[in-house]
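TL;DR need structure tokens for one chain.
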Amino acid sequence: MLSFTNISRCQIRILESPVRSFIRNLHRGPIPVSWEKPQIGWTKLNFDGSCKGTAGKASIGGVFRNHDAEFLLGYAESIGGATSTIAELAALRRGLELVLENGWSNVWLEGDSKSLVDIIVKRKHVRCKEAQRQVSHINLIMPELQNCIVTHVFREGNRAADKLARIGHQLQKPKIWRHIPPDDILQIVHEDAKGKIVFRRR
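>> reply
TL;DR here they are.
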């Protein structure tokens, strides 16, 4: 599990398990990926955006879990036409709004878009006006949290959020699940809690 010691107020970093890093550098075979629990007192948000079709129909989704890997809240919605970057940003923004609504103060934010993590962590410039709007809103919310970190994970470690984002395509209006996830997510949540490893092909 990742160490959260000495994390300052709203510190934003890219963290990687030393074991995962060692394995990645040791050989070029499949990479073992698993979802990781937050420490006691922390809430973890996994978020994702989904785009499909030539029209770029987009949707978002996310899932909150505690240190026991228990499902706290999930969300999904269709957001209309958008690029994949905007969808990812919208998914994070909506998740942060829910963080404030639920009073969580120590939050681990994790997504599978490396470019989004770079935008937030490295303050990478975005040209698109809508993307800039999303980033500005995210940057307003994050300082409100007592502690937060942002990390990247491969999609294999973000399966629950990925599934919720795809469910969002089917929804006519935004939806939130509290305490009990939708049936399509339940098995993934249980597998993540048990530390299931999914191998990523290079």
